[in-house]
Amino acid sequence: MRGLPFLLTFLLFNLTVDAQQEWFTMDAQQFWQTKEVNEIIDPNNFSRSLLEAALFHAGNETRLKKGKPALAWNPTLNKSARHQSELMANSGKLSHSWRKPADSRQLVDRVKLFGGSFQALGENIAQFYLLDIPEYEEYSFHSGIFTNKQGQKIANKSYKKLAQECIDAWMNSKGHRENLLYPFQEIGTGVSFWVKNKRGLNLDIYLSQNFATP
User: Fold this and answer.
1) Of 49, 82, 42, nearest to 210 (Cα)?
2) pTM for this model (two decimals)
3) DSSP 3-state assignment of 167?
């Protein structure tokens, strides 16, 4: 009986993993109707997989609207994209290349790190803010609450809204748009954990798309 708690934990973990992977394989319309993706993001109860799935579906919807085929989700590319977003979050900057660690300097290195090998690769990266507020608009922070110039409390974005805003921003940038619509075949999407700074929680989140052709 001493192994039972471990067994229960293992089973629960696998059920969670299966549920998260299902977000990537379900129909986009069905995904957008799920309760979770329309919820406001809580940094203290944050689902990376949910935001990554939202980014995956939002990107594919954009491709389909432009007459391009949807990309297949690749778990290896998902890992390399997550790793890239973590590197950016820990350094506090956007970059496609790094001096350290040596196994993560370029996109091809990061993909290889997780066992991937492809004929062609591409990458989009972004940094977004959690607060649901127009870019460059002023806000205040008092007693743990963010407020706008009118003194109204500012809510956080939902998973759906943050993902769609990111795709829209990439589509309005020539290089990112080319990657999004390029005839790759597979994709992985990865986002960072929240990183705390001296003032508390850092509300920046880093997002990555890794594209590939086998």
Assistant:
1) 82
2) 0.86
3) helix
Place of tokens 């290896």: 76
**Per-domain boundaries in the chain:** 22-213
The angle formed by the CA atoms of residues 172, 174 and 180, to the nearest 5 degrees, is 80
The 10s digit of each residue's pLDDT in 6-64 is: 444 444 434 444 556 889 999 999 999 999 999 999 888 899 999 999 999 999 999 99
From the list 159, 187, 177, 184, the residue with the least C-alpha distance to 49 is: 159
Structure tokens at 137: 């608009």
Cβ-defined contacts of 112-116 (< 8 Å, 24+):
113/80, 113/83, 114/76, 114/79, 114/80, 114/83, 115/76, 116/74, 116/76, 116/77, 116/80, 116/212
Contact 188, 76 (CB under 8 A): yes
Q: How many CB atoms lie within 10 A of CB 169?
A: 15
Q: 48-65 vs 159-171: helix axis angle to the nearest 10? A: 40
Superfamily of the domain at 22-213: CAP (3.40.33.10)
Task: Using only the alpha carbons of the chain, give its radius of gyration.
Answer: 18
Token digits for 107?
Answer: 């996109």
